[in-house]
């Protein structure tokens, strides 16, 4: 009996060792555990799967850029992965489907690096929705607790990693990588259909979603810690296309949107009092907030033609913009003032004073041919009563304690000053 038990344990242990070795060798999330073997593992075709949570969690601290920019998939797709023409360099740490819970962890872990100069975070109402706190890949990533070695162990032991590793090997051998979600050239009409298919689901979402003040407190507790220790915190509200933005207003959430802008401005004003940046990247103090939403010029560009194949100049689809617009936003931030009427510095103006202009721009857009088509599409849904339920998920005391511990490990102002002097 003892022999059979030993054989069973040996077989089980060997299988586990092979499982871990395969995951580490293929390294589908590009965490640095395996070599790049041409035709087998060199192309990390699945590195952006699971929202980049695993990759970003491991890359924080490994990149040389002095600024990280983060946010949802709008940040991932709306900015280059690296921007060298930025003070100290900038690296894209966006994660798909992110929310305030995950971004707070990311900000705290990034703050451990004494050479972090600036932290840019993309914001919109959806980031603070009170639904799920994190996606499935979050618990195995470094974002969960900040421990790189432990996170590496979790990744190599994950069945999810194994599935991605198998896909990576298969795609390397066959030379068939998955199609990226957004491209420069589409089949005729595909991008047009993406625009047409967006407004109704977005209307349904905004009718039901609820903004959580607790999520705001959670993220801003970390942003305050960064600002206190000399990191310049830069926030920006995303510029979604009018075919996405109209859903907020048509869903009856106009006041919620205006209140969100005002709340963000108030919280960034409080961050401004936390300290002085050690090495600022843009004009302003410890915290700067820009608003690129509200039917501003890029958001009202015409839709792609029904048979168009070349990508839209500004938007992948109504919720996601191209890197050219992201670079334009960075230029506005560096200039410290709007460029060609694009951008509102909410750190220098009362957000309530710009509400009337937003409503005027909305009415002007609704009178355009695209605006008329959009409103005609939404009109039948506006007569429906009620909305789907929305499940609110609270943040536990243990999760608060964990974040507080991560915030306590943020590099001090003195360490940051020493790093900037090197």
Could you characterize the architecture of this molecule?
The strands form two sheets. The chain has a seven-stranded mixed beta sheet. The protein has a two-stranded antiparallel ribbon with strand order 7-8. The longest helix is centred in the N-terminal third of the chain and has 25 residues, at 2-26. The protein is 46% helix and 8% strand. The protein has two domains: 1-60 and 137-177, no CATH class; 62-130 and 180-421, no CATH class. By secondary structure, it is α/β, with parallel strands linked by helices. The model has no long low-confidence stretch (mean pLDDT 94).
Search tags:
single chain; 422 residues; alpha/beta; 2 domains; 7-stranded mixed beta sheet; two-stranded antiparallel sheet; 9 strands; 46% helix
What topology does this entry show?
Layout: H1 2-26, H2 53-59, E1 67-70, H3 73-78, E2 82-83, E3 90-92, H4 100-110, E4 118-123, H5 148-156, H6 159-174, H7 190-196, H8 199-208, H9 213-228, E5 232-237, H10 242-250, H11 254-272, E6 287-291, E7 315-317, E8 320-321, H12 323-335, E9 344-345, H13 355-366, H14 369-382, H15 397-408, H16 413-421
Parallel strand pairs: 1-3, 1-4, 4-5, 5-6
Antiparallel strand pairs: 2-3, 6-9, 7-8
């Amino acid at each position: 009996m003892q022999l059979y038990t030993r054989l069973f344990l040996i077989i089980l242990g060997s299988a586990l060792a092979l499982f871990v070795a395969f995951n580490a060798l293929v390294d589908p999330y590009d965490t640095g555990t395996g070599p790049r073997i041409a035709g087998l593992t060199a192309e990390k075709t699945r590195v952006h799967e699971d929202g980049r949570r695993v990759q970003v969690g491991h890359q924080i601290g490994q990149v040389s850029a002095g600024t990280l920019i983060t946010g949802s998939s709008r940040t991932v797709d709306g900015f280059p992965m690296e921007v060298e023409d930025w003070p100290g360099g900038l690296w894209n740490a966006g994660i798909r489907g992110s929310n305030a819970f995950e971004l707070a962890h990311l900000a705290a872990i990034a703050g451990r690096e004494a050479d972090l100069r600036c932290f840019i975070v993309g914001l919109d109402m959806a980031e603070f929705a009170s639904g799920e706190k994190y996606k499935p890949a979050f618990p195995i990533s470094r974002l969960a607790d900040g421990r790189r070695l432990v996170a590496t162990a979790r990744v190599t032991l994950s069945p999810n990693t194994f599935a991605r590793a198998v896909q990576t090997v298969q795609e390397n051998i066959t030379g068939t990588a998955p199609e990226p979600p957004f491209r420069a050239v589409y089949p005729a009409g595909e991008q047009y259909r993406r625009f047409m298919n967006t407004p109704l689901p977005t209307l349904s979402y905004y009718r039901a979603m609820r903004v959580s003040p607790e999520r705001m407190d959670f993220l801003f507790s970390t942003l305050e810690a960064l600002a206190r220790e000399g990191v310049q915190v830069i926030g920006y509200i995303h510029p979604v296309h009018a075919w996405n933005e109209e859903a907020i207003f048509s869903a009856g959430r106009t006041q919620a949107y205006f209140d969100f802008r005002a709340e963000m401005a108030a919280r960034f004003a409080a961050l401004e009092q936390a300290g002085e940046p050690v090495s600022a990247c843009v004009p302003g103090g410890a915290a700067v907030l820009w608003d690129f939403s509200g039917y501003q010029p890029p958001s009202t560009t015409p839709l792609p033609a029904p048979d168009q194949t070349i990508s839209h100049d500004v938007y992948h689809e109504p919720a996601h913009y191209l890197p050219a617009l992201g670079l334009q936003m960075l230029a506005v931030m560096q200039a410290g003032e709007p460029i060609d009427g694009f951008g509102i510095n909410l750190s220098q103006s009362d957000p309530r004073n710009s509400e009337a202009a937003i409503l005027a721009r909305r009415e002007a857009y609704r009178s355009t041919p695209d605006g008329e088509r959009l409103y005609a599409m939404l009109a039948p849904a506006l007569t429906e009563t009620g909305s789907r339920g929305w499940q609110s998920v609270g943040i536990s005391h243990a999760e608060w304690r964990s974040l507080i511990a991560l915030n306590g490990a943020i590099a001090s102002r003195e360490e940051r000053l020493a790093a900037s002097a090197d």
